[in-house]
C-alpha cells in the first residue's frame, strides 16, 4: 500500500512518532522521502542521486532538509531509541537474563574520509575506513544487541579540540560515549541497568571511561590493551606487590591453563576461543576486575592473538559468558558495513556539523525501519511455517534462512509492495 504523495504506508507509520520533532508538514514529508530514497538500490547516494529517484524532488530540497530546515534531530533520535528499547527482542528483566541471552549495549566509533577546510569536525587522525592516518571525521555511536538481533541507538560527532567553541565545548570520545549511556539510562533505566556494556580496547583502556561506567552503575566487558600494567593473581590468591604488562603475562601461560569455549557469532558460525581467567587491578587504581584472556592459539599465546577482557560481572557469569558477550561486538561491523554500502552513511555531501548529524539520524532511522520490517516479515513466515509445516527444499525451516542481519535490499522488499 502507498500513502499520499508516494510514501509507502509502512514508512509513513514508522515516522509518525518523529513528527513532533520534525515540525512542519513539509519537513515531515522530506524526511520520509529522504529515508525512502536511502533504501533504494542506487550507487553514490548524494543529494542529487537521491533526488533523481523521487518524483518532483530537487537536490536543493534535500540539502535544505539537512542544513537549514527547523527540526530537532535529537528529538527524532530519542523517539526512535525509545521505540527500540521497548521492543520485545531486547527485553530482559535482569543482568543474569541479559548474560544468558547475550544482550548488551555496545560503544564504538566510525570514521570516514573527508577533506576540505569548510567541512566541520575534520582533522588528520586515524581513519579505520582507510586503515591509516588521514583527513577524516569520527562519529561515536552506541548500539544494542541481543542474540541475533541488533539496532543502532545514538550517534554524536567527535569535534577536534581546535574547532570547539564556548557553545560547543570539547568532549573526548569516552566522554561522548558516557553521555550517550546517560541519555539511554534516562529513557529506560530498568533495561539499561540490566545490560552489560561492551567496547574495544580504545575505550576499555581508558580509566575515566571505566570509572564513568562504575558511577552509572553499569556492568561491562571491556577489552584492554596488552601493554597495560596490572597487578595479576589467580582467583582466590592475593595480588602481588608488583605489576606486569598483560602481553608478558599471557606468554608465560601453558596450553593446559586454557579452557576451550565456543559461541555463536553474527555470521551464523560458532567462534572457538581458549580462555583463562585471573583477577586484575590496573596500576594506579583501587578497583579489582575479572580479567579473561581469550586467545586463538593456546600453544603460543601472544598479544596479537589474544583479547584481554576486563569484566565487572557477578560470579555466576562464567568466562564463557564473558567471551560470548564481547563477541556481540561483531554486530557493530555488520551495521557499519550495511549502513555504509547500502544506506549511504558516509556519502553525505554537506559541510556543517548539524547537517552531517541529521544525515546520520535519517540513515539510522532507515536502518531501524528496515530492521523492524524484516522482523515482522520473519514473524509472518514463522507463523505460516507453524500452521503449514512448511519446509524449504534443503530441509530447514522457513525462518532459519530468513534471519539476515541486514535490512532489505530495497524499499519494495522492505514494504512488501
Please render the helix and strand layout as text.
Elements: H1 9-15, H2 19-22, H3 25-38, H4 47-52, H5 59-67, H6 73-85, H7 95-101, E1 103-113, E2 122-127, E3 132-146, E4 149-157, H8 173-187, H9 189-194, E5 197-199, H10 201-204, H11 207-215, E6 220-224, E7 229-233, E8 244-245, H12 246-251, E9 259-264, E10 270-282, E11 289-295, E12 306-312, H13 319-327, H14 330-342, H15 353-388, H16 411-415
Parallel strand pairs: 1-5, 5-6
Antiparallel strand pairs: 1-3, 2-3, 3-4, 6-12, 7-8, 7-10, 9-10, 10-11, 11-12
Helix pairs in contact: 3-15, 5-15, 6-15, 8-11
Report on this structure.
There is one protein chain. By secondary structure, the chain is an alpha+beta fold. The chain is built from 16 helices and 12 strands. Strands 1, 2, 3, 4, 5, 6, 7, 8, 9, 10, 11 and 12 form a 12-stranded mixed beta sheet that branches. Helix 3 packs across helix 15, helix 5 (59-67) crosses helix 15 and helix 8 (173-187) runs parallel beside helix 11. The longest helix is centred in the C-terminal third of the chain and has 36 residues, at 353-388. The termini are close together. The model is unreliable at 391-417 (pLDDT under 50).
Count of alpha/pi helices:
16
Name the structural class: alpha+beta
Spans of at least 5 consecutive residues whose pLDDT stays below 50 are 391-417
Radius of gyration over all CA atoms, rounded: 23 Å
Please indicate the percent range of residues in DSSP E strands (runs of 2 or more). 15-25%
Overall body shape: globular
H/E element order = HHHHHHHEEEEHHEHHEEEHEEEEHHHH
Give me the oligomer status.
single chain
Averaged pLDDT: 88
Ends apart, CA distance between termini = 6 Å
Number of E-state strands: 12
* Helix percentage: 25-40%
The biggest sheet, with number of strands, parallel, antiparallel or mixed sense and barrel status, is: 12 strands, mixed
